[in-house]
Amino acid sequence: MARGRIRSKLKLSLIYTFGCLRPSADEGQDPHSIQGPGFSRTVYCNQPHMHKKKPLRYRSNYVSTTRYNLITFFPKCLYEQFHRAANFYFLVAAILSVFPLSPFNKWSMIAPLVFVVGLSMLKEALEDWSRFMQDVKINARKAYVHKSDGEFRRRKWKKISVGDIVKVEKDSFFPADLLLLSSSYEDGICYVETMNLDGETNLKVKRSLEVTSSLDDDESFKNFTGTIRCEDPNPSLYTFVGNLEYERQIFPLDPSQILLRDSKLRNTPYIYGVVVFTGHDTKVMQNSTSSPSKRSRIEKRMDYIIYTLLVLLILISCISSSGFAWETKFHMPKWWYLRPDEPEPLTNPVSPVYAGVVHLITALLLYGYLIPISLYVSIEVVKVLQATFINKDLHMYDSESGVPAHARTSNLNEELGQVDTILSDKTGTLTCNQMDFLKCSIAGTSYGVRSSEVEAAAAKKMAVDLDDHGEITSRTSTPRAQAQEIEIESEAENSPRVPIKGFGFEDIRLMNGNWLREPHANDILLFFRVLAICHTAIPELNEETGKYTYEAESPDEASFLTAASEFGFVFFKRTQSSVYVHERLSSSGQTIEREYKVLNLLDFTSKRKRMSVVVRDEEGQILLLCKGADSIIFERLAKNGKTYLGPTTKHLNEYGEAGLRTLALSYRQLDEDEYSAWNAEFHKAKTTIGSDRDELLEKISDMIEKDLILIGATAVEDKLQKGVPQCIDKLAQAGLKLWVLTGDKMETAINIGYSCSLLRQGMKQICITVMNSEGGSQDSKAVKDNILNQITKAIQMVKLEEDPHAAFALIIDGKTL
């Protein structure tokens, strides 16, 4: 099965209902009104030579994140150095030391100042040089750019111009802000990862205009021309307004056609795009700020100390000079050894004010060592050495990625030791965001004997608690024994079996066709079919292993398909209207190829929290297969579809307490007349143009996603990243306060806390929760009073604790916050 051949036949825009965008201009949408200030940009596609003269000469694609250049380094850096109170004082003192009034050699003031300022400037230069080298590396990346006559050649990013046609291949970054023209998929769909822009790991779907989606090979750009009129450069990542003039027609553009610099092409072999914004005009660079001059809290506090010492210095000098003026006026004539008959200006009794002012300047220089310049010399040397040690620290080197620690600026080294609170998310921060199918509930029966990390931690905790209270008995199944069994079982199962990415399930009752001997084999069959059919993934054959891998929008979906494959239901092919599955329906290993015609697909959104697919099987039956959050699925069940609701709910609670992510699976059989009537309404809503299109689609979807029959539920594990418990333990030992935000139930969150060492044995837990009550104004006040009462008791408990080494954990639910 050739990978390119499968892809080229797919029009993915027909798969997506909600996530793929709105009807294109080909279906009657009016072009945008592009006029007035803020909409002056004109881009001539495939004609970059038009942009070499003003007013169409735009910025180059060269980017720079450095703070200085050869011209601005000395003035900007000197300004930064003398912006510090101490350096400015030493500068004034060095200038005054040049004059004869100075009581000591001028070089004793100038040399230390030059050393301190010079060392700081050298440090700034080296740090800015590292930024420059990083810029050079990025600007030297290469992309395929249309040269002429349908030929694409590799060109450095910095030499790409506005109007160039660029070809970007899978897993490559976009070199500039591009207008998507076409992709390897027939209708111009592509998947984009925007993690570098907004931190989102789920892929986003982009779609080109239908009029340009046919430009899907190099030769098609031989004579391609067009004009884009759009908004001027701005920092808004989620908006874009413009029109494309092509083949004497005008087509409106929106953000769904824009591919932003620093985002990455995923799950798509290649795309073609025209460069709209380059370099510092791109949206990501518009959002970036110049590297600020960062100053640590110690440095700022030292400024206040300098101000205090300066006031003290001036006070001492004023007292000294006042005394000198007094002595000059009233006692100088009596001091014969100072030759009062031939007085000098400094000791002339006739002008004591002049003598006092001159002495004030001398005193300021003489007592100037009250402000120690040597302290600044030491601090600068220590900072540079600290940054060097950090960069060379083997304990901070990641061997997997080959990336060492890098102190981008040594100005903030001391801040590392002053962090007292860490706020962390759970998913993707503490966890890997790589899902493993671990357990499932089918027809009221729970399958999967492997324990999650959270279960193992909870079992160990229970064993220790009972041991502490002397409640371990000789029974064969104590929690401690269970914990040991979990470990031994896990080790025994892990050792012989080759690990499969996305699949951590182990239960002989479902593996190798044994599910056929289970009491509810028909329900299990339906469960596996939902896993294999209800998705938007694309299969790829690994020629080395002979197995299929799946390119999906989320890791959950990929893990479901991997699980279905291991259970004997291998999704291996998708065409525009069908999905094909190899089904193993006997324990002998013989498989049957089945085709399921995809009639409609209602894709997953964060608002819907569910996904459905309407298919017709080979027997002509029409089935609606649905998976989603249990709360959403349960409220849509038919009266006769709640047979397994009780046990499934119990299993879902158990999976949740084990720290697993759960989804409920259901189905519904449709008759021909009902489906035909619904499909007519759905098609009408799908082709509607207007702001209420999504609401209308949601309403029509609700009409079919009802009266469902519950089959079961899935449970996948998002494992902790390597070293997380040890890291959190070290941070806790250092006295840092850690907060972790999770969407789990409180009991689950506590178990997760133990698994990642956020909670430890012997730690006293303070739980602040809201009692369930129906909200009125009086209830709201009572709830607040109850929370305040809980907080007061918690504070008292901490104050009355006699053990100085006692550790406390604060656990707060969302409603309380």
Give keywords.
21% strand; nine-stranded antiparallel sheet; 20 helices; Calcium-transporting ATPase, cytoplasmic domain N; Calcium-transporting ATPase, cytoplasmic transduction domain A; 817 residues; 35% helix; single chain; disordered N terminus; globular
Give structural notes:
With 817 residues, the protein is α+β, with helices and mostly antiparallel strands. Among the domains are: 144-282, Calcium-transporting ATPase, cytoplasmic transduction domain A (Distorted Sandwich), CATH 2.70.150.10; 375-418, no CATH class; 433-464 and 498-718, 3-Layer(aba) Sandwich (Calcium-transporting ATPase, cytoplasmic domain N); 762-812. The chain is built from 20 helices and 28 strands. Helix 3 (85-96) packs across helix 4 (107-139) and helix 10 packs antiparallel against helix 11 (479-494). The longest helix has 34 residues, at 297-330.
